[in-house]
Amino acid sequence: MAGRDWMSLGLLLTVMVSQVMIVNRVPVPWQVAPDLALLGVVGYALVRGSEAGTVMGFTAGLASDLLPPVAHVMGQHALVLCLIGFVAGRVAEIRPEAGPMVALVCAAAGPPVMVAAGGLLGEIRIIPETLGDVLPAAVLCNMVAAPPVVWAVTRVVRGNPRTVSWARYAVRSHP
């Protein structure tokens, strides 16, 4: 495996373990947590592009589908993250300066796309409680967590600790 492949595998494992061992165990009153896999895929796709974002989205989604607690159809998260990874990467290829906006839009789009995929697969019934309570809280959690998580992932994926990518334009520190 090449160095980038090992780094990608390490990033994926770190995100998955952090989601299951830390984020999902934090007691919150609204019963939702940010989706670190989604945010990690977005950050990865912003740096590597649509093809790599699609592959990472599928891989991260499939890993997420296998890790407990699983409350959806197998492959549903893989489908959603695959689509989000493609879109984030494609927009970043076309307009690289739009990275922060793409990250926020993808973070907000993830939960509604997950609900829509669940509805299409017959896994969940779209009920007012889901649309009125859980969905807005999930979108808000993802949007609050997006800046630091996506920034950290893009920084790791780029491999240049002196590049800060969350700013509108890349800012390089001088030694």
TrEMBL record:
Main localization, broad class: membrane
Localization: Cell membrane
Gene Ontology annotations for the cellular component aspect, listed alphabetically: plasma membrane
Record bears the keyword Transmembrane helix: yes
Domain of life: Bacteria
Ranges that cross the membrane: 6-24, 70-89, 101-122, 134-153
One annotated GO biological process: regulation of cell shape
Keywords recorded for this protein, A-Z: Cell membrane, Cell shape, Membrane, Transmembrane, Transmembrane helix
Family: Belongs to the MreD family.
Protein name: Rod shape-determining protein MreD
Organism: Planobispora takensis
